[in-house]
């Protein structure tokens, strides 16, 4: 349990007390109250905004010359832009589970959305690992921790970590919950923004944690027609070319702008840490990666990254990340250090002045040193890991996979991807080859072997279950 307590000791006073002593005690109590209020003010509010399926280059401040995101760009100008930020999975649920627990997938069992038995069974060569669709009740959430530390907690949007009432966010540490699964993403953005700003107003005089996991820009793609017409009049730029997706992204950006304006209005901006990121890469980049996705278009393009959502290539897991905290994070700063979603849990615990229970092992690290001293600052030497022991089809009736069972590791500039069906590994130097076009596994076998050994050692350390190859008889029957 996370505990942050303030104790004020009081002594019974006699019925009659000298005036001088009364004045002294009143002054002391007033000073104590003022001190406590000042300490409370120093504990920052936290707003964590999570977009859905937003690609690394979709915000204008990350490179788009077609989409318009002035409020996200404002965050970037006023805060820190992370250029090597990652999600914990190539699709929705695993990132959310790791973010909420600060723990890698094998510790809680959430690897994908629904089941790893996706796509045509006849084409699957392995038996996937059983996937947890409900975040186990034994897991302590970030909301649990911050509420125990005295924060008001609210969740406004897509939870995706459990269906039963006991797994709902209201039972996992959140005081206030607002969801809108029955609406298209456009009305949902409006509704969730209103609920989030209302929560901020109600809790303006105490520390709060507002978690805003928007549905946008996930399908179905929808937006007001006037906005769509605006983008129809704009020339495409690179792979960014769909007016309805661009309009939907602008609607998301406007929602973020309303949240920022509320913080300004209430004079909370200086004492609020705002985090903006995405749960995985954008829906695009498949054709360039040799994936035949039919039917269904590509909503966006993650170039220069390879691939997109559902893949362990950079296009599927590298995401935009911005953090703003005036007076603590230098405006307009950049950080190139590799970071990942599970780092938010220990970071926010440290900022909130809370401590983790030793029984609840956290796999991430606090990013506070990077926030306070961005230039050249590094965190402890470490690798980042991904474990995806299931299948993701490329689309209905497609004969391609976005991914077969696979794992990946990034350590420094080097990244290795392992495909479990065949044991094939691919090695890339991301500093020199961000698009993962040049597989160096053959020319640098010792480095490939060392990274593969490190990945395998990590899997053993966290007890990561592996998918099993089907028996030869099953494979032969399935291929008839």
Fold and architecture overview:
Helix content is 30%, strand content 16%. The protein has 480 residues and is an alpha/beta fold. An eight-stranded mixed sheet has the order 6-5-7-1-8-9-2-10. A four-stranded antiparallel sheet has the order 12-15-16-17, covered by helices on one side. It is globular. Mean pLDDT is 89; it is low at 1-41 and 475-480.
Give the class from helix and strand content and strand pairing: alpha/beta
Task: Report mean pLDDT, rounded to a whole number.
Answer: 89
Distance between the termini: 55 Å
* Poorly predicted spans: 1-41, 475-480
Largest sheet entry: 8 strands, mixed
Principal-axes geometry comes out as globular
* Number of H- or I-type helical stretches: 13
Main-sheet strand order equals: 6-5-7-1-8-9-2-10
Strand content: 15-25%
Q: Taking Cα atoms only, what radius of gyration do you get, to the nearest Å?
A: 24 Å
The level of helicity is 25-40%
Number of strands: 18
């Amino acid at each position: 349990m996370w505990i942050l307590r303030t104790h004020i000791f009081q002594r019974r006073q006699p019925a009659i007390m000298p005036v001088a002593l009364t004045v002294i005690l009143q002054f002391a109590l007033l000073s104590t109250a003022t001190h406590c209020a000042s300490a409370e003010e120093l504990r920052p509010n936290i707003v964590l905004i999570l977009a859905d399926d937003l690609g690394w280059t979709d915000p204008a401040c990350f490179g788009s010359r077609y989409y318009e995101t002035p409020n996200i760009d404002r965050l970037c100008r006023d805060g820190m832009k992370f250029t090597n930020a990652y999600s914990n999975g190539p699709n929705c649920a695993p990132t959310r589970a790791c973010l909420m627990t600060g723990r890698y997938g094998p510790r809680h069992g959430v690897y994908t959305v629904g089941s790893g038995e996706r796509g045509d069974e006849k084409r699957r060569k392995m038996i996937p690992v059983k996937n947890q669709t409900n975040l186990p009740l034994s897991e302590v959430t970030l909301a649990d921790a911050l509420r125990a530390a005295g924060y008001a907690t609210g969740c406004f949007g897509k939870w995706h970590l459990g269906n039963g009432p006991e797994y709902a966010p209201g039972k996992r540490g959140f005081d206030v919950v607002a969801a809108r699964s029955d609406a298209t993403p456009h009305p949902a953005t409006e509704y969730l923004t209103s609920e989030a700003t209302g929560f901020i107003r109600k809790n303006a005089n105490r520390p709060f944690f507002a978690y805003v996991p928007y549905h946008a820009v996930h399908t179905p793609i929808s937006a007001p027609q006037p906005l769509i017409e605006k983008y129809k009049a704009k020339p495409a730029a690179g792979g960014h070319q769909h007016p309805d997706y661009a309009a939907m992204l602008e609607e998301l950006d406007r929602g973020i702008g309303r949240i920022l304006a509320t913080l300004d209005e209430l004079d909370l901006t200086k004492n609020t840490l705002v985090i903006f990121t995405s749960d995985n890469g954008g829906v695009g980049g498949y054709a360039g990666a040799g994936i035949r996705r039919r039917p269904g278009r590509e909503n966006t393009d993650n170039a220069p990254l390879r691939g997109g959502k559902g893949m362990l290539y950079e296009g599927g897991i590298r995401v935009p990340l911005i953090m703003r905290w005036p007076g603590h994070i230098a405006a307009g700063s950049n950080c190139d250090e590799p970071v990942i979603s599970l780092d938010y849990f220990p970071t926010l615990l440290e900022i909130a002045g809370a401590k983790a229970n030793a029984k609840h092992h956290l796999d991430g690290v606090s990013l506070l040193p990077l926030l306070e001293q961005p230039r050249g600052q590094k965190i402890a030497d470490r690798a980042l890991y991904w474990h995806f022991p299931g299948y993701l089809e490329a689309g209905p009736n497609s004969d391609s996979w976005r991914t077969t069972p696979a794992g990946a590791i990034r350590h420094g500039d080097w990244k290795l991807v392992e495909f479990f069906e065949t044991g094939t590994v691919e090695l890339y130097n991301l500093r020199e080859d961000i698009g993962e076009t040049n597989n160096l596994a053959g020319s640098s076998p010792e480095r490939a072997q060392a990274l593969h050994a490190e990945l395998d050692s990590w899997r053993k350390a966290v007890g990561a279950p592996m998918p099993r190859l089907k028996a030869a008889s099953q494979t032969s029957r399935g291929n008839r």
